[in-house]
Specification:
The chain is of the alpha+beta class and about 500 residues long. The chain is about 40% helix and about 15% strand. It is built from 18 helices and 12 strands. Strands 3-4-2-1-7-6-5 form a 7-stranded antiparallel β-sheet. Strands 9-10-8-11-12 form a 5-stranded mixed β-sheet. It is elongated and about 95 Å long.
């Protein structure tokens, strides 16, 4: 079972980093087993001393149980003991090492704040470093740290906010008292230093710094409350089976699209259909389509595909058009893709956002007047791919300087010096889709599971999940449509489960 120690450390100008005060759980048998050599104060200055043996001891009330504490037999009260050092020699060694690291090489931004470090051998530490003002110290301040030490890494990570909030509260109280003492001493101390050249004091205890004779008794009560209530802050519950072992792509796709085969409207084969058939298997590759369409056409069609606009490919060769439609469909999650590889008539965007049509099919005027489509008229003479032509029509201006990152990453892979095989290319792009699907999941949870949102909070969430450009914001909103009803029901059930804990 998990146990945790809460420790106060300070940096002594004479002895360096020192453990000053430690609160831990113990048993009656261990209560009197203390290493007196560590508590002997012969080599400790006033600043390095806190309490003498036996320190402070508190008990839980008879019959009460503390979750997670495995130090006393069943039915026995839990004992909370505060002394200068931990009882166990092994724990003292690890706590001493954590003390040194917290006050030396482990540094956070601004030197004051939260740090996490540790390993399986020496245990894990949540640390909160801070300064207390001292008019008689070098630099007019003393360096301290509060530690929560345990061997359970996940415990500290899950309880991060609990320890940070409580440590911050303790530090705030100590700072207030220390500032009052500092301000009352400041004028006289500064005058004496300049007039007499008096050196800074190297030995002032915490009791003097905050002018509280019972400061360690107060810390004992606060540390005891933290150790005891940490295990009541969260309640461990069994994770339902349906929350584990699921694939991101499978869970985000539309169930309808997942179960149905791709719709395709059959048309009679055209005269020149067979002429280019041997070449079409290569067109499924992103690299070949990129070279065939040229960069501008590929990027334009790719952006329209990713943000959910209708992409229409029109041509006389059915296999060529169908191959291109299938290629662009690979850019989208399955749940966002409604494709008709080839049709003898125009289909509205709500039926197919990727549509292939014959050369003689006209696009309705209301579509041509909108900015929610892109039309690619493609043609190729006989077997010669060098005669391939593509004319792009669109009212939506694509800003080439603000393209979505997923499309830029694909382009880098296509133009990479190291030529990726088709399985490698598809695996690479699948990982990019999984990343953005996860971002879409995060956005959905934020929008639907946390109450009403302001426009500024939504913008902040979009930036947090990586949607920085306007095109990326349009893309991730479109990809929300690919989240399945199964996924949404799971999130609702999870919300209900957490609300009952």
């Amino acid at each position: 079972m998990t146990s945790v120690k809460v420790i106060l450390c300070h940096f002594c100008e004479t002895h360096g980093p020192r453990v000053l005060f430690c609160t831990e759980t113990t048993s009656k048998n261990q209560l009197n087993m203390v290493s007196h050599s560590r508590n002997a104060g012969g080599d400790l200055c006033h600043a390095c001393r806190s309490v003498t043996h036996p320190g402070f001891v508190s008990y839980t009330e008879q019959g009460q149980e503390d979750k997670g504490q495995d130090v006393t037999p069943a039915g026995q009260p839990v004992i909370y003991k505060s002394s200068q050092f931990p009882d166990s020699d092994d724990d003292f060694s690890h706590v001493r090492q954590a003390c040194v690291r917290s006050l030396s090489n482990e540094v956070c931004i601004g030197r004051e704040g939260s740090i996490f470090f540790g390993d399986n051998k020496n245990g894990y530490t949540f640390c909160f470093t801070f300064y207390l003002r001292d008019s008689k110290a070098r630099g007019l301040q003393r360096f301290y740290s509060l530690l929560a030490w345990t061997r359970d890494r996940y415990f500290l990570v899950n309880y991060w906010s609990f320890f940070e909030d409580n440590f911050r509260s303790i530090v705030s109280q100590l700072k207030q008292h220390a500032s009052k003492v500092f301000e009352s001493e400041e004028k006289d101390t500064v005058a004496l230093r300049f007039q007499r050249g008096i050196a800074p004091s190297r030995s002032r205890s915490l009791t003097v710094l905050v002018n509280l004779p019972d400061v360690f008794e107060r810390l004992h009560k606060q540390f005891t409350w933290i150790v005891r209530n940490a295990f009541n802050y969260y309640e461990e519950v069994e994770v339902p089976q349906w929350l584990t072992n699921f694939n991101v792509e499978e869970e985000c796709i539309s169930e309808k699209c997942h179960n149905e085969e791709d719709a395709e409207i059959e048309v009679p084969p055209e005269n020149n259909e067979k002429s280019i058939a041997p070449e079409l298997s290569q067109l499924m590759r992103f690299r070949d389509v990129y070279k065939l369409l040229t960069r501008d056409s590929f990027i334009t069609a790719g952006v329209h595909t990713l943000i959910g606009n209708q992409v229409i490919l029109r041509g006389s060769n059915r296999r060529l058009v169908s191959a291109l439609v299938n290629t662009f469909s690979n850019l989208l999650p399955v749940g966002c893709c409604r494709k008709i590889p080839y049709s003898s008539q125009y289909c509205e965007a709500f039926d197919a956002n990727l549509l292939g049509i014959g050369q003689s099919v006209n696009v309705p005027q209301h579509v041509m007047d909108s900015d929610l489509f892109v039309l690619l008229d493609v043609s190729c003479e006989q077997l010669d791919l060098s005669t391939f032509k593509c004319v792009v029509t669109s009212n939506f201006n694509v800003d080439k300087s603000a393209l979505p990152k997923i499309l830029l990453d694909l382009e880098k892979a296509i133009n990479s010096d190291k030529i990726l095989s088709e399985p490698e290319m598809m695996a690479f792009y699948a990982s990019l889709k999984d990343e953005w699907l996860s971002n879409a999941q995060t956005l959905y949870q934020f929008l639907k599971m946390s109450g009403p949102k302001t426009s500024s909070s939504i913008e902040l969430c979009l930036k947090t999940v990586g949607a920085e450009t306007e095109v990326e914001k349009m893309m991730i909103r479109f990809w929300l449509n690919g989240l399945s009803g199964k996924f949404k029901k799971r999130q609702l059930a999870l919300r209900k489960l957490l609300s009952t804990v």
